[in-house]
Design brief:
Blueprint: H1 11-32, E1 45-58, E2 61-68, E3 80-87, E4 90-103, E5 108-116, E6 131-147, E7 150-170, E8 178-180, E9 183-185, E10 190-212, E11 215-238, E12 244-249, E13 256-260, E14 263-264, E15 279-290, H2 297-306
Antiparallel strand pairs: 1-4, 1-15, 2-3, 2-13, 4-5, 5-6, 6-7, 7-10, 8-9, 10-11, 11-12, 11-15, 13-14
Length: 307
């Protein structure tokens, strides 16, 4: 396998691009005319969408993988899937963040967000040497008014991280299928992945600019600290009826070997893997406010006439 991945992007290019986007957001906010800073009212709901950079801390490392689908005396021709490549460094993965916020008070908001990495939707082959996954965030933020239409949000989030790393992909050469735990996989894009589960906490701070009465542009940054990480190997392929079959394997299983810088990864050695989920994170996006019926102008006028 080639050490150069066509989807591998320079993290500094990511930072430069996002700095430019941040400038566009702030300039757009000023051109649109910042509204007087009336803080969000308790009970209001916002839907948010953002482009995010999430930490993966991918290290430069030599990766070697090998899987043998049967013993030497097997009753069928034995196939081997192997890959050797040099992993390049990268600090961030790109993601899209979709969320919902609820104003508990005029200043305090709670939020829930889903944050899939963009490369999670690619084929097994395209995921080779890539860190991918999804995060589920539960957070709270307190907003301080800086000026008319400008606010500073300070808060934190607790996250469930479900990550993955594409080790290799391939298919059988000596027969029509690859044997994995008595299951026959028939396609040529059988994926070998590390699957991670971890928890994380993320203190954060953000700048908000009100572009319209119901639209707020924001730029957030924070530090994510991951802990309680658990990792394993999954093998994904298509069985004869066309369904995708996932098979869970352990690092210490005798028919496979994953080596990082010539050191074999064993069970319970997640820290030896050449990536992690702690580090800086960035978000650039917009929040759209949905007003309750009592906040709508027509209803407010009718209410005053009723009095």
């Amino acid at each position: 396998m080639s050490s150069v991945n066509p989807f591998d992007l320079d993290p500094m290019n990511d930072l430069t691009r996002n700095a430019l986007i941040t400038s566009v957001f702030l300039i757009a906010g000023s051109k649109l005319g910042a509204q007087p800073a009336s803080e969000s009212k308790a009970g209001q709901v916002q839907v948010t969408i953002a482009h995010s950079l999430l930490p993966i801390q991918r290290q430069g490392a030599q990766v070697a993988f090998r899987y043998i689908d049967g013993p030497a005396n097997a009753a069928y021709p034995v196939d081997t899937i192997s890959a050797t490549y040099r992993l390049s460094q990268r600090a961030f993965a790109q993601a899209i963040t979709l969320g919902v916020q609820y104003a508990v008070t005029d200043h305090l908001r709670t939020s829930f967000s889903v944050r899939p990495y963009l490369n999670s939707f690619r084929s097994n082959t395209a995921k080779n040497a890539q860190v991918y996954g999804v995060q589920f965030d539960l957070g709270a933020d307190y907003t301080l008014r800086l000026a008319d239409g400008v606010g500073l949000a300070v808060g934190s989030a607790v996250s469930r991280v479900i990550g993955g790393y594409g080790i290799a992909s391939g298919g059988p050469r000596n027969k029509d299928y690859l044997m994995v735990d008595q299951t026959k996989l028939y396609d040529q894009d059988i994926g070998f992945h590390v699957v991670d589960q971890a928890w994380a906490v993320s203190p954060r701070v953000g700048l908000q600019v009100r572009a319209k009465p119901n639209i707020v542009l924001f730029a957030n940054t924070g530090f994510q600290l991951a802990f309680a990480r658990n990792s394993r190997i999954n093998i994904a392929g298509t069985v004869k009826d066309g369904d995708v079959k996932w098979t869970r394997r352990n690092f210490s299983d005798p028919d496979l070997s994953l080596r990082i810088d010539d050191k074999r990864v064993e069970n319970g050695m997640s820290k030896q893997l050449p990536y992690g989920f702690s580090g800086m994170q960035l978000d650039l996006g917009a929040a759209f406010t949905f007003k309750s019926k009592k906040d709508r102008p027509g209803n407010a006028a009718r209410g005053s006439r009723a009095k």
